[in-house]
Design brief:
Distance between the termini: 63 Å
CATH class of the largest domain: Alpha Beta
Shape: flat
Number of helices: 19
Number of strands: 7
Order of helices and strands: HHEHEHHHHEHEHEHHHHHHHHEEHH
Strand order of the largest sheet: 2-3-4-1-5
CATH topology of the largest domain: Rossmann fold
Number of domains: 3
CATH architecture of the largest domain: 3-Layer(aba) Sandwich
Structural class: alpha/beta
Strand content: 5-15%
């Protein structure tokens, strides 16, 4: 008996086409997981609001979610924006803004005013516009005497917001969400610093997302030097079972005709081939969507081999786009470094020592093993972190967050060495180098060029 996952409705192929056309940086259609992260944000916002009602301020409420590209950081923010806008019920007011908006204080405080009271915000708009030059400066705390936790005055119109919107006008806190925070400019950090220190006493909690270099950027550009480890979260793979749940939701949402056993088989398959990495899962689900369109939405007729191949091709394409020119210039060096890092990782000083050792050991004529022009070992390491090739894991060790990306980078180095007829990577396995490198190429869907045994 064939069951329809959409309660006996015809497959929604039009909506399925929309899903396939989505770019991978857009909001996740079938958001799963991240329950601990969401709970942390909601608890912090709730605490900030309680303190506000008590006439106190909560300093250090900023939360940072960082990780490699494709880890689902943007999806987390957009999911929260949609969820809180729909539910209300004491949850925070969501305010997702582009990073440059931080450098326009008047626009930011007006957006907050609109969330609190659209009618009153119109009068506030006139006040801010009329006194824009004054409100973007600094001024004393006003209102009901909320205790600030820093001696600096509130910045950029926040004191005026405080004056016109006393505690009685706030029904819930505001969660200010900003993505791509690793690109923060110096001027944009002033607003974040003021909110982080809670010098205005308002229940506005910054929740930031960015690449693995974001914490260092906030310290340098944002002036947030007291962001504790408990406030920083690394976003990575989904938990076991969550990717499969996203596939089930997808099939149900599009009313796909399928037996329960087929649904479970595909859910298990996509969880496995995606490594539970959000971006790869999205790509695999879109590949499945393409297969469904070809057979009119009947899951049992989908070509599993074709879907797996298309998902793999999308993954390789994403990796190709992630590799910078600097990484291509030092392709063999990157491959050696990825081989040395292994699964358990290396401490930062060990990675830098490894880079230096590989440079010293390069053979004559190995142009792809050197550092990119103008880069030091430390600079190159920071670049790899920025590109998502490395990030801090357990015990502050640097690891490659996606095992298949590490394998891809090693494979790129091996292919280059085959092309150059150079010796193989050091320290990447117990097999002989040639056997091991050939296996790596096979796993990455490559075929090594035959080499001349005579050299």
């Amino acid at each position: 008996m064939t069951a329809n996952t959409g309660q006996n409705r015809a497959p929604d192929l039009g909506k399925l086409r929309e899903f396939i056309a989505e770019r991978d940086r857009n909001a996740a259609w079938f958001f799963v997981g991240r329950t601990a992260e969401i709970a942390e944000i909601e608890d912090t916002c709730a605490l900030a609001f309680r303190r506000f009602r008590e006439g106190k301020a909560l300093a250090g409420a900023t939360r940072l979610f960082q990780g490699a590209p494709g880890a689902g950081k943007t999806a987390l923010l957009t999911h929260l924006e949609k969820k809180w806008a729909q539910t209300g019920d004491g949850k925070p007011h969501p305010l997702l803004v582009d990073r440059p908006t931080l450098d326009d204080p008047a626009a930011l405080v007006l957006a907050i005013a609109e969330l609190l009271d659209p009618d009153k915000a119109q009068r506030f708009r006139q006040t801010v516009t009329r006194g824009r030059a004054a409100t973007v400066g600094v001024g004393p705390l006003s209102g009901s005497g909320t205790q600030a936790t820093a001696t600096s005055p509130p910045l950029a119109g926040l004191s005026e917001l405080r004056r016109m919107f006393p505690p009685a006008d706030w029904d819930r806190p505001v969660c200010l969400m900003v993505d791509e925070i690793q690109n923060l400019e110096p001027g944009e950090g002033k607003m974040l610093e003021s909110l982080h220190l809670a010098v205005d006493g308002l229940p506005i909690v910054p929740v930031l997302a960015g690449l693995s270099s974001s914490q260092a950027v906030l310290t340098g550009q944002g002036g947030i030097s007291r962001l504790s480890d408990r406030s920083v979260f690394t976003v990575g793979c989904l938990d076991a079972g969550q990717a499969a749940e996203a596939v089930r939701r997808m099939l149900a949402s599009f009313c796909i005709e399928a037996e329960d056993s087929d649904v479970e088989r595909w859910a298990t398959l996509l969880e496995r081939i995606s490594d539970r990495w959000p971006q790869h899962l999205q790509n695999a689900m879109q590949a499945l969507g393409e297969g469904l369109l070809e057979v009119g939405g009947v899951l049992a007729k989908v070509d599993e081999r074709a879907v797996t191949g298309h998902a793999h091709a999308r993954r390789l394409d994403s990796y190709e786009r992630r590799v910078s020119q600097e990484m291509r210039d030092g392709v063999i060096l990157v491959g050696n470094l990825m081989a040395a890092v292994r699964d358990n990782g290396l401490h930062r000083h060990q990675v830098i020592d490894t880079i230096r050792a590989r440079i010293r050991d390069r053979p004559e004529g190995s142009s792809a093993r050197h550092l990119p022009e103008g880069m030091s070992p430390t600079g190159f390491l920071n670049h790899l972190v920025h590109r998502g090739a490395l990030q801090e894991g357990e015990d502050h060790r640097l690891v490659c967050p996606i095992p298949s990306f590490r394998l891809f980078l090693i494979g790129e180095a091996v292919q280059t060495m085959f092309d150059k007829n150079e010796f193989m990577l050091e320290g990447i396995g117990e097999h002989s180098p040639t056997e091991h490198d050939a296996r790596l190429l096979t796993e990455m869907g490559r075929e090594p060029e035959p080499t001349d045994p005579a050299g």
